[in-house]
Amino acid sequence: MKSFADLSAREILAVAIASEEEDSRIYASFAEDLAERYPASAKVFEEMAEEERAHRHMLLEMYEARFGKNLPPIRREDVKGFLKRRPIWLTKNLSLDTIRKEAENMEYQAARFYERAAEQTTDVDIRKLLGDLAEVEKSHGRHAGDLEKTLLTEDAKAEEAATSHRVFVLQYVQPGLAGLMDGSVSTLAPLFAAAFATHSNWETFLVGMAASIGSGISMGFTEALSDDGALTGRGSPWLRGTICGLMTTLGGVGHTLPYLVPDSWANAFWIATSIAAFVVFVELWVIAWIRARYMDTPFLQAVFQIVVGGVIVLAAGILIGGA
Hints:
Number of helices: 10
Order of helices and strands: HHHHHHHHHH
Structural class: mainly alpha
Strand content: under 5%
Radius of gyration: 29 Å
Number of strands: 0
Number of domains: 2
């Protein structure tokens, strides 16, 4: 790799031309990714892509006037310590905030490059062009804000907010809720069966942890392998799988932890079981609230569905354990 300080004026312009071309393609990719979900914001990135193409044209005209038409094959990746970007534009269904932050980072890096390049160049015209571009890149944040004010009407903002909420529910709430429900309900039977069969807090704790972790691993892989998110817009399958697996484990661990009450305590079993039963009640109530808040389920209906189901599973575990 070549050091930035060793770049000639010709190479600096070549890198700048390649960078502007790539940036315009990145912004165009962002616009394409956002077009269906956030059409107004997609238009902002289309405008920014067009501006980058205009910058490339200005740089190319300067290069051809100074050095002819042949561009040396040098890119920013060939320069040491310069503009190492994560290729997040290859990932579909990125959140709007993630894309905006990446665009801000790109503009900041571009401005820094043009500032350093202008300081290093002795050609007056090239130095002026690079300095002007540095100021343009610095102002892009303000310009993007102006574009948003023009293109993002109140109706467009409301529509994009609704889309953002829907994406949040699909990518985070649904897999997390599925995991929490499975972990909270499915582990009740083995946990309380072990509790009433052994009356040993430590053995019950081990059974509960095994059931919770095993369910978390199973649910995580099931969620990750069920849908790659390409058509449904549900995002990264491994992110969803991780969320689902963790929430499943959390749902089971919550009512398992009370059985860490030492067996040596007086009435240790009943103390632990009472606490666990209270935790179960809280877990089921939280699940009902999440369903009512994000899944458009009437609260009382959600309470009835979750609490009744949980109580049936809990009773089944107690009956089996006490048999």
